[in-house]
Each structure stands twice: as structure tokens, then as C-alpha cells.
Amino acid sequence: MRQYFSFGLLLCALLFTSCKQEIKETKTIPESPKTDTTTESPKKPLSPHTSTMAMIGGAHIHIDYSSPGVRDRMIFGGLLAYDQVWQAGAHMATWLETDKDLIIDGQELPAGKYGFFTIPSKNEWTIIFNSNWDQHGKDEYDEKDDVIRFEVTPIISDEITEHLEYKVSQVSKNEGTIALAWEKVSISFNFKVKQ
Q1: Does the pLDDT at position 156 exceed 70?
Q2: Which of 128, 130, 131, 132 shows the shortest CA–CA distance to 118?
Q3: How many other C-beta atoms are found inside a 10 Å radius of the C-beta of residue 125?
Q4: Under a CB-based contact definition with an 8 Å cutoff, are residues 180 and 187 in contact?
Q5: Predicted confidence band at 43 (pLDDT cuts at 50, 70, 90)?
Q6: Across the beta sheet with 102-104, what order do the strands follow?
Q7: Are strands 102-104 and 146-152 parallel, antiparallel or unpaired?
Q8: 47-72: per-residue pLDDT in tens?
Q9: In angstroms, what is the C-alpha Rg of the chain?
């Protein structure tokens, strides 16, 4: 009888221990990490602030602008109406700074900092360097502050430049080009560093 009782106790102890281990094991299973839906990664700006620069003929040329995207929109003649002043970028007016006098379209642009504006049209663009470089968009644009103005012919491409892009490139020792491209349109003009 004692043997049956001992065997029964031993069996109960084994069952109890094995159940206890199962419970312990289920408790030690790691939980899947919880995702916090309240924090989102910061969004990229739609018109990132950027700049381009070059040294040409001893002159440091610097263009500072915000670069809007096309985002499946018709830009020229659509989002931007033809024959109206445009700050040639997004947000603040695009500006150009040169530490030496430049000759552009036969006109002198003295060393300094200038708002860069354009008047796009279908067949011809007006390029404007304005003494009021620090303004939001074209809010304070005034033609009386224009330093030089001239016309260029736009080049139309089949390929789209998604984000507005400026380039300053060297042509020869003292000459360069300034180019703008966005959507299917690009423009460029030459300048010479005054010696």
C-alpha cells in the first residue's frame, strides 16, 4: 500500500513540476515589439533649400534658392502664368551673389547680392537682377529696383527635370554660363568677369 501511495505522490510531483515548467516556459516567450504609431518620420520638404556656386575668372558666384518639384503638374503656362514676374524658385526670392563685377548681355552687374527674377513666356523669358534680394517670393518686387534686364530664348525638352535646378559653369578663363532647368524648360545665359 505504501508503495502505491509513494508512487502516486511521485507521479503527482512529476505532473506538478512539468506543468509548472510549461507555465514558466510560456511566460519567457518574448513579446513582439510594439510599434508606436504616434511618431512619424519627418517629412522631406516639397521645395528643399539648396545652392550652387563656382569660381570663374577669380569671381565667386553663388546662387541660393528653394527647389520646387513638378509633381505631375503643368508648370509654365499652368502653375506659373506666362508674362508675370516669378521669383525663380519657391518661398524666398532666389538670390545671386558675386564678389566681382560681371558683364551680362553687354550690361554691368556690380559685385554684390541680387534678387534673381524672371518673367517666363512661351517664346521669350525676361531675366532680372534686382537690388532687393531679401524678400518672400515676389511680395516686395518693384521694377524700379531692377539693376539689369535682358531677354533669353527658352529651350524646350521632351525630358522632365523634376526639381528646379541651377548650374554655374565655366566656359573659358573669364567666362561662364548660368543655367536654370525645371519641368521641360531650360534657359541659360553667358557672363564675363570684368577684369
Answers
A1: yes
A2: 128
A3: 23
A4: yes
A5: confident
A6: 107-109, 102-104, 175-193, 155-172
A7: unpaired
A8: 999 999 999 999 999 999 999 999 99
A9: 34
